[in-house]
Amino acid sequence: MKNKIIYTDGACEPNPGNGGWGFVILNNPKNITVYGGEINTTNNRMELMALIMALEYFDTPQQIIFFSDSKYVVKGFNTWMHNWEKAGKQKKNMDLWEELLLLKSFHKKVTGNWVRGHSGNTYNELADELAVWGMEETVLIAVDNMPL
Q1: Is the full-model pTM beyond 0.85?
Q2: Does residue 72 contact residue 55 with C-beta atoms inside 8 Å?
Q3: Residue 33: its H or E element
Q4: CATH number, position 83
Q5: Which residue in 51, 18, 20 sits closest to 146, CA to CA?
């Protein structure tokens, strides 16, 4: 089975504030790009949501390698969340970490890798751009829904 390669990113400005997430799935011949956002959130939540949404994209178990410029997400996914689960500890964003544990158990294998942000990596830059679009659209929706 061939590994699926994913790049994820989150954005939030101000932090906390309105945020966005985005991901890129490398797919021959055309890459898959998806983004979205939330109001009243944090950057870390958007980083986690990007990965959640990317893993949920697949309806069958896959072998996945993801890249993120968030050490919080990569270290948390590869190591920390398992320790928290074993120790029964509650951490910030535990609802999202628990969802990631379920998604990791659904897929055949998921491994995270850190990539330096804003360093010219084409797919990391694209994931960042998608997250910003998600954040901007969320801000527009929030403004449109404000009472007069």
Answers
A1: yes
A2: no
A3: strand 32-41
A4: 3.30.420.10
A5: 18
Query: Coil, helix or strand for 133?
Result: helix
| Pairing, β 63-68 against β 109-114 | parallel
Ordered per-residue pLDDT tens for the chain, 148 residues: 699 999 999 999 999 999 999 999 999 889 999 999 999 999 999 999 999 999 999 999 999 999 999 999 999 999 988 777 676 667 789 999 999 999 999 999 999 999 999 899 999 999 999 999 999 998 776 656 666 5
Structure tokens at 73: 């997400």
DSSP conformation letters of 85-120: HHHT---TTHHHHHHHHHHHHHSSEEEEEE--TTSS
For residue 28, the tally of other CB atoms under 10 A from its CB is: 5
Neighbours of 30 (CB within 10 A): 6
Q: What residue numbers bound the domain in which 43 lies?
A: 4-144
Euclidean distance between CA atoms 54 and 67, whole angstroms:
11
Number of independent structural domains in the chain: 1
Please work out, in degrees rounded to the nearest 5, the angle formed at the alpha carbon of residue 49 by the alpha carbons of 28 and 119.
Answer: 60
Q: Mind telling me the catalytic residues?
A: 9-10, 47, 69, 118, 128
Q: Supply 60's token pair.
A: 């069958």
The β-bridge relationship of strands 17-26 and 4-12 is antiparallel
